[in-house]
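lol ok so funny story. i was supposed to be doing the assay writeup but got distracted and ended up predicting the structure for this chain instead. priorities right. anyway since i did it might as well share w the group, maybe its usefull for someone
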Amino acid sequence: ENGRCITKLENMGFRVGQGLIERFTKDTARFKDELDIMKFICKDFWTTVFKKQIDNLRTNHQGIYVLQDNKFRLLTQMSAGKQYLEHASKYLAFTCGLIRGGLSNLGIKSIVTAEVSSMPACKFQVMIQKL
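and the output, tada:
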């Protein structure tokens, strides 16, 4: 039951991400490479959706990117106690889909996962799937 809800949220986020990225990039020049696209996601896309940039972007230059948000908006309201940590995945599933959908529309197939170690900070790991 819980897994089905998370899948549904992730799929909804995917569709929303596709639509948003289409709107945000219509007047943008073509991206040079994968890293350029990830920078766009971290700066422009994140700022438009969450009113702030990603705090940290890391890569191993082999198709894995880690986006870190130290004060993720969807978790700040419930970050007072540890009791909500188990529910964080529901709030992150939609955002994982958002990132995956945006990247998909820019021609990048990916797997996006999220982890929360201490609220409201979270990390999104993006694994690029080579075609």
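The mean pLDDT is 90. Residues 1-128 form a domain with the Muramoyl-pentapeptide Carboxypeptidase; domain 2 fold (CATH 3.30.1380.20).
back to the writeup now i swear
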